[in-house]
Amino acid sequence: MRYVAAYLLATLGGKDSPSADDVEKILASVGIEAEASSLKKVIAELKGKDISELIAAGQKKLASVPAGGAATSAAPAAAATVAKADAPAEKKKEPEPESESDEDMGFGLFD
C-alpha cells in the first residue's frame, strides 16, 4: 500500500510515469526503506496505465462491496430511540465529589 501511495504522490507531483527511484525518494523522505521486489511489481503493474482511470475503476469495485445491509440499518434507529429515552435520566445525575486519595492514606507520592 505504501508503494502505491508513493506512486500516487509522484503522479500528483507531475510525473506521468514515476520510476522506482522516484518512489524510493518519496518513501525515504518519511523514513521507509523500499523493498526492491515489491516496488518493481507495483511499478510494472502501473506502468503505462492512467491513474485516473484506475481510481475510477477501483471506486466502482468498492461501490459493489456490501457495507451493512437492511437488517443492520434498523439497529441504529432502535438504538437512537433508546438513547433518547435514557437522555433525561442522565441529566439528573449529580457530579461526584473528587476523591482525595492522598489525604485518606496519610501520605503523598512525593512526600
Name some characteristics of this structure:
111 residues; mainly alpha; 0% strand; flat
Give an overview of the whole structure:
The chain has 111 residues and is mainly α. It has 6 helices and no strands. It has helices at residues 2-12, 20-29, 36-46, 51-63, 70-91, 101-105. The longest helix is centred in the C-terminal third of the chain and has 22 residues, at 70-91. It is flat. It starts with a helix and ends in a 6-residue tail after the last helix. The mean pLDDT is 77.
Quick recap of the structure?
It is built from six helices and no strands. With 111 residues, it is mainly α. The mean pLDDT is 77.
Biggest sheet character = none
The percentage helix is 55-70%
Q: Please work out how many helical segments DSSP would assign.
A: 6
Distance between the termini: 53 Å
- Specify the overall morphology: flat
**Global structural class:** mainly alpha
The radius of gyration is 28 Å
Mean pLDDT: 77
pLDDT below 50 for ≥5 consecutive residues: which ranges?
none
Please tally the β strands and state the result.
0
Beta-strand residue fraction: under 5%
The topology string of helices and strands comes to HHHHHH
SSE topology:
Elements: H1 2-12, H2 20-29, H3 36-46, H4 51-63, H5 70-91, H6 101-105
